[in-house]
Amino acid sequence: MHVQYRGRRCHFRTVDFDPARNAVVLIDQRLLPHRFRRIRIPDHRATAVAIRDMVVRGAGAIGATAAYGLAQGAREFAGDDLAAFREHLARVYETLAGARPTAVDPVNAMRQVLRAMETGATVAEQQRLALEAARRFADEDVAHCEAIGRHGAPLIREGVRVLTHCNAGWLAFVDVGSATAPLYTAWAEGRRFEVFCDETRPRCQGASLTAWELAQEGIPHQVIADNAAGHLMQRGEIDLVITGSDRVLGRTGEVANKIGTYTKAVLAARHGIPFYVAIPLSTIDWDLADGRSIPIEERSPEEVLSAWGAIEGGRGRRLRLGRVRIANPTSTARNPGFDVTPPELITGIITPAGIFRPEELWAHRAELGGPADG
Amino acid sequence: MHVQYRGRRCHFRTVDFDPARNAVVLIDQRLLPHRFRRIRIPDHRATAVAIRDMVVRGAGAIGATAAYGLAQGAREFAGDDLAAFREHLARVYETLAGARPTAVDPVNAMRQVLRAMETGATVAEQQRLALEAARRFADEDVAHCEAIGRHGAPLIREGVRVLTHCNAGWLAFVDVGSATAPLYTAWAEGRRFEVFCDETRPRCQGASLTAWELAQEGIPHQVIADNAAGHLMQRGEIDLVITGSDRVLGRTGEVANKIGTYTKAVLAARHGIPFYVAIPLSTIDWDLADGRSIPIEERSPEEVLSAWGAIEGGRGRRLRLGRVRIANPTSTARNPGFDVTPPELITGIITPAGIFRPEELWAHRAELGGPADG
Known about the structure:
The structure is a homodimer.
Chain A: E1 2-5, E2 8-11, E3 15-18, E4 23-27, E5 38-41, H1 44-52, H2 59-76, H3 82-97, H4 105-117, H5 123-152, E6 161-164, H6 181-188, E7 194-198, H7 205-217, E8 221-224, H8 229-234, E9 240-243, E10 247-249, E11 255-258, H9 261-270, E12 275-278, E13 284-285, H10 301-305, E14 306-311, E15 321-325, E16 332-333, E17 338-341, E18 348-351, E19 354-356
Parallel strand pairs in A: 6-7, 6-9, 7-8, 9-12, 10-13, 12-18
Antiparallel strand pairs in A: 1-2, 3-4, 4-5, 10-11, 11-17, 14-15, 18-19
């Protein structure tokens, strides 16, 4: 999507590749929304570190970064010894897979790249195939998000007021995003509307990343405390909710997403406000049969006890990022990272293959890339 | 209540008076929870500034501060000229009333003091009566909170897990608090339980003040993001909710309170979790007949766009308080300060006169200090 950069409107992807320098090119998300910086990652080890250190985050984005990282690593190999190349490639794979051990997207993405390399008879051919496959992975991520946008855009009617939670925007993918895709598509089609961004404590991805994205596109939006959505719904100021998801159970229609999503779904149901979840097909889990068995990561208490941002009132114009301790210094915190929303609170799941009632996913599993049998 | 102060467990009121120095004594709440400091306010003008600058906040606490401030101002007068004394007193009243022009508690409290002074024939007698009346006002505030505690404590059974929102604790009153009173009473009676403190963005009074209060009493508690309560309820980890209120409509049972209260009430109702509101009688508004006509203050966007606290990682041990900008710098925010919870979501209103169903307040208006007729 676009970034207002040095006075110009530029198009950037979250993850890109510079073949001349064999560099993965990332937007440094650790500095957003306070500073926009693209960085060229010179080798696959540094790419793994970038994944680990959250320079890049979001399922689609870290998948594409790992895919490019594997191609990058493959291209670092000099010579034509296929056996040595395979050994080298296995080390590159392990380095990248180990950067975020619990994330499934880097592994899936790299497997696609490895499969594509199989037809190559020489090192050079395999190196070429690797980069092609990584590019294809990134392009498909974009195409999926664009398809979500096409299916979801008709929901964004002129003048609607949309609530979002967390960031399922283009920064979490290669481009376009999932929850934001219908917004960007409707905006490009000329319809005008407003967005409320839940700030999404404790990490505040709504206030920082989603608000930043919308500001770059010029879409009117306001940040709200997570506490305020219920009041705004009560006063008739919200017409529609769209969120992303970390995992949708294909068998039950349950939706795991950033903590607080369930609360917004309960409020929306009470007020008769449509609640949509936008996802690429890779988000659907066809195995689990019960949302209660989704592991809910308990994250660091520090995220709740403090807040991160640009420290105000510093000397001069130098940007200083840091944390303030909000909470009583002798208190601790609970910090569940995700919650699970039951299907009866969800109006529809917006996918690249169309919009489905959550309970209908299983029946449509053939279209949605699900398993052949039950 | 108690404060762990210089290694000892001390009892302090939020608002007190030192007659020898004619000083109002306050806990400086601008420094909490990061530093505990009591300050002696030397004259009524400084007391007005302390009210204005939020050294003291909370309905009961600012009422008592204004009452003491009026007595303090009365005692600043030298001589026995009654007419000049009355003129002086009118100026003191205006100074204190102007400190927080929209707050009703300072005005009501000072009127009580003025009425008590009427029987004094001399300046000295009126000065004595003023201080007596201010003390009585403060003592009654404490007695009301203690009565809330007696009525509410049976709800706090052994082992319960209680959710609170914002701070309706002793720091908001002269002592004991409203929502916290049942907790402190049950704790003193020997029952053991746990509290979840909603952090209560944007001003985070739950994470800072309520957590600080509970820590001083040694009551086990954990801070949670406002987003997390729904998930914890869903997993069966919350048994009871108690909040305070800024205004309860005696005619309808509607409850205005800190933004986010409505959301927690909706969630509690969905999960069959009792939801109580604890208030002194002065919180009941017997006039308004419709919660939609309660004015909802729209506060500064800055509160949402940033967070306040102790800046971490500073040099040495010096405490530095300040703000970090969380949100995208070019975005704005909506910041409604309060919301209104309908009576059907509220299990009971805990008052100094007992616990009532919200719809029953009007029928019990005689006991609750309401108007004689409809």
